[in-house]
Amino acid sequence: MTTLFDALFRHSFYFEELLRGVSDDCFKGGESATHALGVLEREWENIKAGQRWAAEKAGSAPEASHLCESYAAAGWLVLEWRMHGREQVRWAKEGLAAARRMGYREAEGRHLSNLGHAYNTLGQARRALICHRLALSVAREAGSRLHEAEDLFGIGMALLSLGEAREAIGLFERSVEILRELGDRLIEATPLAQLGVAHERLGNTRRAVTYHEQALAISRELGDRRGEAEALNQLGICAETLGDARRAVALHEEALALFRSSGDLRGECHTLNEMGNALYDLGEWRRAVVCHEQCLALARRLGDLTAEGDALGNLGIACHALGDLPRAIEYHEQSLAISRAAGDVWNEGRSLGNLGLAFEAAGDAHSAVEYHEQALAISREIEDRNAEAHDLCNLGSAYALAREPRRVIVMCEQSLTLARETGAREVEAEDLRLLGVAHEMLGDAPRAASYFGHSLELAREIDNSRAEAAALD
Q1: Which of 368, 443, 438, 442 is nearest to 409 (CA)?
Q2: How many helices (H) and strands (E) does the chain have?
Q3: Distances in Å between the alpha carbon of 1 and those of 4, 13, 63, 64, 274?
Q4: pLDDT (tens digit, 9 = 90+) per residue, 208-235?
Q5: CA–CA separation, 78 vs 154, rounded Å?
Q6: Is the pLDDT of residue 460 over 90?
Q7: What is the predicted pLDDT for the residue at 378?
Q8: Are 358 and 332 in contact (CB under 8 A)?
Q9: Which of 47, 134, 245, 396 has the fewest CB atoms found within 10 Å of its own CB?
Q10: Please, are residues 415 and 431 in contact by the beta-carbon 8 Å criterion?
Q11: Phi-psi region for residue 286, left (φ > 0), alpha (ψ -120 to 50) or beta?
Q12: Residues 108, 96: contact at Cβ < 8 Å?
């Protein structure tokens, strides 16, 4: 006679197998992924019920413990794409406990790694770092080179969140090296993409482009639509940095379609954020607000604190452009609080800079200088040359408001050097304009006119309407 336990075990087992199949098909992409996502939507409540039963019974029944571990392993791809970070943590912890209970040492390492990724999503980079380092020790103990490469990548991701881009690069390079030795080209694309992100953080935008192009080529060759979307999104970010906002929008739109077709909500969230940034650069501020509001809603649904902080900061920037300074300051303060709570130094510096710009627009030069100095200290600490160029330029602007032209010149000359080295052409145009303002204050009209002319020429070359209007003004 079938007992209640047997019936519930069969139910749980059936939906664990279903989840495993869904994850496999999602990874394939294309029509397989589309069909799998439909199955996932229809059966999601049953899948969650099966996992809950296995987790509840894991301590008293070995077969339930095995299922609990299998759910966390089989469903990780789906969890990472679509679920709130707290749910990811719960599944990973329950899978980890089950693996330890059964003595599955290698599985323990995989759940530790997944737990690290979940913590990083929640903005808890230091906890993520601990998990990935523990996972790395398990991988090396087991002699698993593939898992070693994955765990080196995970440590690099946590360090990148903590502003340690240079150290992260070494780990990503080691991960790529191992994956090439193993011939695993599909996974190789992921650390290549993050090498690009890390170089972007250090201001090496053109070098970042080469890594993203390598990742894109591999993803397209192997039919990895999600990897292709990620590479396109990152190339869009680089295009924006290099002053080509129209190309950036086109790349983000292409990435967004791919993320949506593959059901990757987290990728969709990040792409909406970057598309909003590019639209802002084109002066399409209301469209930018729509993108950032959609991003914010998805970020909160997924528990992605980094994306939430980014969306709030970008909404603040757009509200600033639309003339709503009180709302802009409110958004930037919320973004700053999230970054500080998460230990996200890079985004903390960005929020401080945005607050400086908002106070400058409100006519408060003293507060603007204070915020920009704090932002500059962070960008120098983490060696983010792009951010340093922006922060120096912003300080120059605040000093222009305070009518201190010699300080404007000192800041903007430093910024101009960095902007030209890193290819930040929008910053270069603003530096030239501010140098013109400073020389005009000093009574040197011919030199001022020369700087204004160069700024206008560059603004038109990069098709930046805001910079062109500022130079003309």
Answers
A1: 438
A2: 24, 0
A3: 10, 19, 19, 20, 59
A4: 999 999 999 999 998 888 889 999 999 9
A5: 18
A6: no
A7: 93
A8: yes
A9: 134
A10: yes
A11: alpha
A12: yes
CB 418 within 8 A of CB 203: yes
pTM (2 decimals)? 0.75
Tell me how many degrees the CA angle 51-38-86 measures, rounded to the nearest 5: 40
- Tokens encoding 279: 């639209």
| 127 membership: H or E segment, kind and range | helix 125-142
Give me the residue label for tokens 């912003």.
Answer: 394
CA angle 40, 265, 167 (to 5 degrees): 125
Counting every residue written for the chain, the total comes to: 473
Concatenated DSSP letters of 370-410: HHHHHHHHHHHHTT-HHHHHHHHHHHHHHHHHTT-HHHHHH
| Residue found under tokens 């996200």 | 344
Going by C-alpha positions, the residue among 27, 147, 45 that lies closest to residue 81 is: 27
CA proximity to 29, closest of 191, 192, 186: 186
The structure tokens listed for 119 are 């913590």
CA angle 288, 273, 253 (to 5 degrees): 80
Contact 59, 21 (CB under 8 A): no
* CB 273 within 8 Å of CB 240: no
Tell me, what amino acid is at 166? R
Q: Is the Cβ–Cβ distance between 78 and 70 less than 8 Å?
A: no
**Residue 207, phi then psi, degrees to nearest 5:** -70, -35
- The H-assigned helical ranges of 282-364 are 285-302, 305-321, 325-342, 345-361
Cα 319 versus chain centre, distance = 22
Q: In the numeric block, which tokens belong to residue 441?
A: 């204050």
Coil, strand, or helix at residue 22? Answer: helix
Asked whether the beta carbons of 336 and 318 are under 8 A apart, the reply is: no
Question: Could you tell me which residues come within 8 angstroms of residue 306 by beta carbon, excluding any fewer than 6 positions away?
Answer: 121, 123, 161, 342, 344, 347
pLDDT, tens only, 336-392: 999 898 778 888 999 999 999 999 999 999 999 999 999 999 999 888 888 899 999
How far apart, in whole angstroms, are the C-alpha atoms of residue 327 and residue 319? 7
Per DSSP, 163 falls in state: T
Which residues are within 8 A (CB) of 38 and not within 5 positions of it... i.e. 6 or more apart?
A: none
In whole angstroms, give the CA distance from residue 406 to residue 435.
Answer: 10
Structure tokens at 300: 């909160």
Q: DSSP secondary structure string, 72-128?
A: HHHTHHHHHHHS-HHHHHHHHHHHHHHHHHHT-HHHHHHHHHHHHHHHHHTT-HHHH
Whether the per-residue pLDDT at 144 is higher than 80: the answer is yes
Contacts 24+ apart (CB under 8 A), 334-339: 335/309, 335/310, 338/123, 338/305, 338/308, 338/309, 338/312, 339/309
